[in-house]
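Morning. Coffee machine broken again, so started the prediction first thing and wrote up yesterday's gels while waiting. Chain of 136 residues, entered below exactly as on the submission form.
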Amino acid sequence: MKSVFHFFVRLRSVFYKDIKKGLPVEKLVTFLRQIIDFCQHNLYLDKPIEGSFPLFDILKMIQELFGGMEYHVNKGKVFEPLNLLVKMNLLQSRSLFNFLVNSLKSSWANVRRNSFELLTRYSDTYEAFNDTKFVN
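Came back before lunch.
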């Protein structure tokens, strides 16, 4: 996972200036969408716990590095928010959101914690949060 993390950090640094300037980054968006779709399609409620942790970790890395929060790599290095996930609707999948909410009922504490961490990074303007039928 450490190598995957460094790959995503490098990917972020390569596209950083283009993202901040608002230039098109279709290749990056397509790649991230494919990774998120892969994780989403391979996460399901009865999935063995050992197989789900790397997928949760990858989703967290993507949210941390390309989302809307500051990410502290270490004491001296802080990445500012890119908000790419919201701008490009990369985590807007209702089925992934539903999976994360349902995972809060898992019997595995680590699954509940990972799901909670991912859900807390969703924007408060996410459509499901404002859907009274869904919230009930």
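The mean pLDDT is 89. Going to sketch it on the whiteboard this afternoon.
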